[in-house]
Amino acid sequence: MKHKLRINLLASWGEHGVSMLIGLFLMPFVLNVIGDEQYGLWLFICSIAGYSGLLNLGFAQTVSRFVAHHQAKDEVDEINSVVSVVGLIYLGIGVAVMLVSGALAFLLPYFTSMEGTTVGELRFVVMTLGANVALTILGSVFGGVIVGLQRMDVERGIRTICGVVRLGLTVFFLKVEYALSTLALIFFATTLVENAGYAVIVKRLMPTLKLSWRFCNKKTLKACSGFSAFSLLENISVKLVDATDTIVIGAFFGMGYIVPYYVALRLSQFITQPLQLIGAIVMPRGAELAAEDNSHRIGQLLEKGLGVAFLLTTAFFIGACYFGDSVLRAWVSRDYPESHMLLLVLLGAQVIATPVRVLRGVLFGLGHLRVPGILYFVEAIANLVLSLILVKPLGLLGVALGTAIPIVLLEVFVLLPYSLKLLKLPLWPTLSRIVGPHLPPLFVLWTYSLMVSLLIDPIEGWLSVVGVSAGGGAVLGTAWLVCQHASRRMILVPDRVA
After folding, report:
1. Does residue 48 have a pLDDT over 90?
2. Residues ≥6 apart with Cβ < 8 Å to 9
3. Is the pTM of this model over 0.90?
4. Is 236 within 8 Å of 196 (Cβ atoms)?
5. What Cα–Cα distance (Å) separates residue 138 from each residue in 56, 76, 188, 450?
6. Which of 125, 280, 366, 428 could pair with 184 as two cysteines, CB 3.0-4.6 Å apart?
């Protein structure tokens, strides 16, 4: 089982590594082709379209959780029932998404600045992105089955291939004229291929899977609805957190002001998303351990996942403090002075949010949904309210603080102690085992970063940035291995004496 977890984690990190490289190239490429105003409008539309994804009602995670649970017990009919019920629900939701998109396409031109874009193109883009959302919702049934079978290596492989194809199509076809329509069509085409791939793979991985009316029943619907309600609440919260900032900035300051904030936000996401994938990977594993009633291994899974997430997120934050400005300049080839401070605020909050997301994944896998879902929703609402309060006096920094403050307060002082108590793990000893072993390597990395920043100032160009980053990774990795080796020797010595 450890072997499977490692494969899934490596596959997820590999897919995200490719995705990050694509994003690092694609964002400045698109920005330079179509300009700040049109790119800001594209981000604004995508943020609104992102809310349509809430219509999946949280059932995608439900499929993953129940497939993993029933697969551990070899309950084939129960799996068929879950997938059939959710598939039928998603078919209806797909129709609803297209209706919402049609209404939005009609109304949006009356509320949005359209410099460089016609009304007809704007409406075409909204409808195409709506179709993309509907297709994604339908395909997530099969994606959920793959994740539930703990074959994320296959799922990530399909996503990687589609990401590379999307990159090639964008570079080849994107021009200033009809730029937004081109981007929307490319997204739809690659989403179609991606979800068709999921369906084909599921048929091969689970030939016993059948979608039929006869598998649909009230008992399964009730079980799925009970789980998905809080999964939906988390999805609503994620959408609010992800999309609110962009919409607030666009509404208060205009589309061009979105870009400096989005640059910092996107770089923060590039850094933290591969670490947040740990939470997605441990969720089905938690469901499997819950079926086996193995509390000891659940504790081990939790401590290792949180420890790795804390180490790597904090390491990136240290690097961003000293070299984030250089990375931003090398990346977008434009100077956005405020982006570095925004990056530090957003990434600093992720030092807490990313490990806690691993904790959420374990809790969801165990079926503990209510309190984490409600707290995440409260956090998202607080994000929106604080952003609206702070955006006028503090500008873009106020929006970033509106995101960071609720994360720190609610996740450190409420969710973390609640979750550890629920899992019957003592607070301070558990935190010491999660955080303590990683402090010496982080101190070594901080020393390295300080010395490099004093010796090389400023750091300019991709080669210098990559070289310094590789050096930091080598220093952190070496220090961590030395600490691990020393820790094992301290454990073994008493055994030998005894």
Report:
1. no
2. 277, 278, 281
3. no
4. no
5. 9, 22, 13, 49
6. 125
